[in-house]
């Protein structure tokens, strides 16, 4: 179970060799069209979330060298609206790895498709993917090897999010056990 696992598990004997962050880093680009808008005429947040999940899934699959499924998505922050005609770039990389899971960080930037103006940072998301085998059982992933100061900062911040996710799950589980049937 999640609660019983230690984050040092991937350092155990027989662990897979590490892979650098850059080996799976990916950018997915897409021009926004009129079919992707909300009632206010800007791009629907769910469309951006789908792109984030797609890019993160590609990164998780590349890093783990096989199937990987979205276990959770948190902290999807929208900073600026995305408009029709924006060329959106969804940049994704593995921030952190556990034994069978990976946190993938996604940074979304947008620029006008036909202008050479600076791109705007429109959103950020953090997703957890679990690598699975043919039967859907979680399988070990290679530990990610952060190479730059930025990668190391992201690794440390991802560890903080991981700690909070596990603590939140544990606290909710404990509360429900104290209040059976509530
Ligand atoms: C994700 C899934 C494989 C986890 O299976 P499980 O039996 O709970 O397995 P575990 O408890 O061993 O968890 C596996 C890993 O995922 C992590 N994990 C599981 N649920 C998580 C969650 N909600 N948030 C963050 N991490 C999670 C665990 O911490 C563990 O990581 P670790 O090995 O690095 O420590 C399973 O719940 C699943 O298949 N979910 C559906 C995924 C899916 O279909 N996604 C697409 C949505 S349509």
TrEMBL record:
GO biological process terms held by the UniProt record: acyl-CoA metabolic process
The keyword Zinc-finger appears for this protein: no
Keyword terms: Hydrolase
Annotated HotDog ACOT-type domain residues: 22-135
Pfam family, one: 4HBT
Biased composition (Basic residues): 161-171
UniProt keyword Metal-binding present: no
GO cellular component: cytosol
Biased composition (Basic and acidic residues): 172-182
Molecular function in Gene Ontology: long-chain fatty acyl-CoA hydrolase activity
InterPro entries reported for this sequence: Cytosol_ACT, HOTDOG_ACOT, HotDog_dom_sf, Thioestr_dom
Region described as Disordered: spans on this chain: 1-22, 159-182
PANTHER family noted in UniProt: ACYL COENZYME A THIOESTER HYDROLASE (PTHR11049), PROTEIN VDLD (PTHR11049:SF16)
Similarity remark: Belongs to the acyl coenzyme A hydrolase family.
Name of the protein in its database record: Acyl-CoA thioesterase
């Amino acid at each position: 179970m999640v609660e019983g696992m230690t984050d040092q598990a991937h350092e155990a004997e027989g662990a897979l060799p590490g892979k650098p962050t850059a080996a799976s880093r990916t950018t997915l680009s897409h021009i926004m069209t009129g079919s992707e808008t909300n009632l206010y005429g800007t791009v629907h947040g769910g469309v951006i979330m789908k792109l984030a999940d797609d890019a993160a899934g590609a990164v998780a699959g590349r890093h783990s060298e096989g199937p990987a499924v979205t276990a959770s998505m948190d902290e999807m922050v929208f900073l600026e609206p995305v408009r029709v005609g924006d060329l959106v770039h969804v940049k994704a990389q593995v921030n952190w790895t556990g034994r069978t899971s990976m946190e993938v960080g996604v940074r979304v930037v947008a620029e006008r498709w036909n202008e050479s103006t600076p791109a705007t940072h429109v959103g950020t998301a953090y997703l957890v993917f679990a690598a699975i085998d043919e039967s859907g059982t979680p399988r070990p992933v290679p530990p990610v090897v952060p190479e730059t100061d930025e990668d190391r900062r992201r690794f440390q911040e991802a560890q903080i999010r991981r700690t909070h996710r596990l603590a939140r799950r544990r606290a909710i589980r404990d509360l429900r056990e104290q209040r059976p049937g509530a």
